[in-house]
Amino acid sequence: MENINKTKETWEINPTTTQYDFLMCKSRYPAFVGGWGTGKTMFAILKCILLAKEFPAGLGLIARKEYTDLRDSTIADFERYTKTKIKEQHKEIVLPQYNNFKILFRHADEFNTLQNINLTFFFLEQADEIEDENIFDFLRGRLRRGTFQQGIITANATDTTHWIYRRFKEHRAEDYALFEMSTSENAKNLPETFLKDLYKLQKENAPMFDKYVANIWGVSDDRFILIPTEAIEELKNVHRISTSTKKIIAIDPSGGGDECPVFVFHNTRIVEKLSLYERDTMKIVANAMILGNKHNCKNFAVDVVGLGKGVADRLKELGNNVIALNSAEASQSPQYYNKRAEMFCYVAEQIKSKKVEGITDDETIKQLSNIKYKVVSSSGTVRIEDKAYIRKRLGRSPDRADCYVYGIYALQYIQPEKSDDYDDYEVEVPYSVWSV
Length: 436
Fold this sequence. Notes:
The protein is α/β, with parallel strands linked by helices. Helix content is 35%, strand content 21%.
């Protein structure tokens, strides 16, 4: 357990009217819905500290949907603004200067442990990530400590089907208060280079600009498809010819009865594919080796999360070059939430730039064109939606989309096999030429 130092901290803030009104709001459920750089998190945290000061000896909760977001963003921001350090194993802090007011930090999967506690306040950050309004209502039921309670949320503008829109925007009850702010309304507190880049974003990605900068309600999640069907369809108009060949076999081992696809790539073209429904790593390896021998290929890209680690290890033991891909690990770039986001965004750019062959498998096309993304930080960090949501929408796991992405991404690290003595080159030739 960590304590905030009793030394007074000075918050040098020049708030806008919206920020100040949110900070001082006494409504039971105040919501700050704003674009990037509007200070939502900072003013919500400051509001929590003011509540602790005004109502000491209480208990507060700061929460977010996902644990990693809670740890890497919310807790990190709290530490930065309050100059404190919260140990990960405790996820709570005591404020001795406010008669030991305690603040807990929890994510949605931990809310079942809150059944028997009474709260002075809760702060639900990025509440637009919460699709189930029962979570908000559950936290409402915990607000019964002391003489005053508040349930605070911050969010980006949502589509019109989201509970935040319905409760705070469309049919706002007496206890609800909504404070809205676009990025431009806080321009005086933002770097000029940041603002200039946002104007470029308006031309390059209008849906993202509308939702995360202009703070426009009603921007449908369907506009946040990472790889639109039209972009995949346009690949059918060209065929790529190269004087060298990169070969790789991509494998997405899947447990629980899901499909385990195996794709053989010659450059960016899938020349053979195999669908397995197999949890036995040795059988998966045996089938992969048969394809490797058939295509004279010793390069493999394998998802090593779960079952895939055993597959990758065995392929290495057999003398193959294995590119191990862990989609859950952190990306080296702050632009991406994790390696999965990095790989999918790379492949999306390859498709949109027509740097890959046409995709002929309808199921792979269907899965690729159903992957949604979201932005999870004010710096524009991109995250691919959880597989559980994709599975629910498609009725199956997007294993073929994953396998395709692994193959295209891993080709960057494969040495080409020269087919002649000329310098390597690539050209695009319309498919109609080959159909004559």
